[in-house]
Amino acid sequence: MHIRKKKCNFAADFMICEDLHSALSKILNSYEPDQVCFVVDENVEEKSDLSRTQIGLKCCTLSVSESEKTLDTVQRVWDFFFAQGLTRRGVVVAVGGGVLTDLVGFAAATYKRGVGYINVPTTLLAMVDASTGGKTGVNYRGLKNSIGVFAPPVETLIWPGWLQTLPAKELLNGFAEMLKTGLIEPSDVRSQYSDGLWEALLRYDIEAMPIEELTLLIRRCVAVKEAIVAADPKEEGLRKVLNFGHTFGHALEELSHAQAHPDVEPLDHGYAVLYGMIAELYLSVTKLGCEREVLQQLTQIMLHAYGKPACKCSDRERLIALMKQDKKNERAAEINVTLLRAVGSPVVNQTITADEAAEAWEYLFSL
Amino acid sequence: MHIRKKKCNFAADFMICEDLHSALSKILNSYEPDQVCFVVDENVEEKSDLSRTQIGLKCCTLSVSESEKTLDTVQRVWDFFFAQGLTRRGVVVAVGGGVLTDLVGFAAATYKRGVGYINVPTTLLAMVDASTGGKTGVNYRGLKNSIGVFAPPVETLIWPGWLQTLPAKELLNGFAEMLKTGLIEPSDVRSQYSDGLWEALLRYDIEAMPIEELTLLIRRCVAVKEAIVAADPKEEGLRKVLNFGHTFGHALEELSHAQAHPDVEPLDHGYAVLYGMIAELYLSVTKLGCEREVLQQLTQIMLHAYGKPACKCSDRERLIALMKQDKKNERAAEINVTLLRAVGSPVVNQTITADEAAEAWEYLFSL
Question: Is ipTM > 0.90 here?
Fold first, then answer.
């Protein structure tokens, strides 16, 4: 059997495994690639049972922060592939967080017009977001993910063991995308369970973060994402529900990277999305009549676990300028957001004015 | 109507038009993009009725030779798109030869994870080969088209008027790919005509190159390519028939670029493919029992119109080393070629030894 090329179905297979070693060996055996090239985040290398012995010599370790998610790093990965003589019948395994899997996915998808790749996400954020759905890419001239392609991995392998290696802040980073998934869960997925994902997430003990329960929630979040992506792989309509919180969130994230100070860590993606969701829930309440209670529930979680954003009212104009450049906009200089009529009822392609954006930023910064 | 995104069907629409101006306007009107960005080969700009007035300000002129088909040039095109504020609902029009349409197609396919593009090929080679089929890409570290993606244009617009602007050498360059198409024409396409494409090409007056008759042959060649691409868009099997002549041809082309001397023009793609076909027809005769007459017919055309290749026997080793690196190879270090059992009966995935390759090179260089 050769590497399956997904042509029409952009929803990748995903698998939650207890033993990473044997699960990966099984997958590789079933694909029979003529060679395997690993690209591994240097911070996670020792933390798993993926020892150098298994990985062998065809391994490239990378340290990829958001500021290194660039074409230069992609070229390092291509150079590694060429040096290994990787052919189209080989396979790439990307082991790391979302920045690494996005970048390696792009490198694989453009190497010799596309070689298959397997994602092994090592952060909660990458498990529930970046490692499925087929979005790959890098930042270009400071614009987040502005160069890339849609190219799903042949498989995404989720090993909950990684979660034990992560600091609380990193778990919260991923949990924010899970909260988003809870807010947009489609009714046909929700009807398969006794209650909604949003309610299940509100009940979850976010302070203790018990792993077993978290794993069940991860499975449900990935299933929701896969269902949405399968229906609209290239984000022509429905898939935009996944962008809830992201128009405001990306602007915060980009501004924090542009202002990055050696002593201050730039804002993490999940935190940015959490703040973005609060701004977009505010607009959902004022523009679409969403219940205020949902906004209050999310605000509680923010104040309790995440803390307030570091930006302030005087950043508004720069944030709005960044929002106008967002690649999600369909027309130049307009601001396109996904809003909620209610939990589980997202509405895509809502255009908002700069004044409305300013009002939502003010609400967020006043909390 | 929005830009149609081809998800499963990689065969683009193509259209042969008499009036480029009105055909392009019609297509653009039907897609209703929010803006149009032209990337035009600076050599063809004045040669058509596509005046600067129509193109307006959103035009980037490029001079792209094979040696400039690089990531640096792609970045210039991306920068132009960003400067214009191009969104995903805009469209790119690439006007030029195959080097330009390959490069601009790659830039469009990776800009914001893909914006639609229209190809307007200005050379015979681009009309019958590069501008359809969805292969995009650039050279990387001297390896031809080794970085790229499969991403079909939303439309390919062929205006035979360009042919009158081309020197004879450039027409011969494209005619070589037409000869290849004649040699591999599938029986189900052939059965729609009174005789085979190969016979029609042999009858064509290659010295006078009458345009009207050539246009009919172009239409047939593009239809053959589209039929093959539709059946196997990502070159997993059948599509490899299109690579006939290309394993040997690419090696010659790469060597000529590596050796390029300021006073000597590097070998053109079509010429390289013609020489490659002679070497691969030689192997088709010796290994698969193809009739020697076909080899003689093609050799006649070579001697009559194209002249002998500039390489010599002492280049054999370097040529074979280049063939082993070809991205068409499925296993590292083997040589994979498409051969013919007869005209219209290509056989893909034929592995040949270095000795067999050497014998075929010797045959070619002895002519």
Answer: no
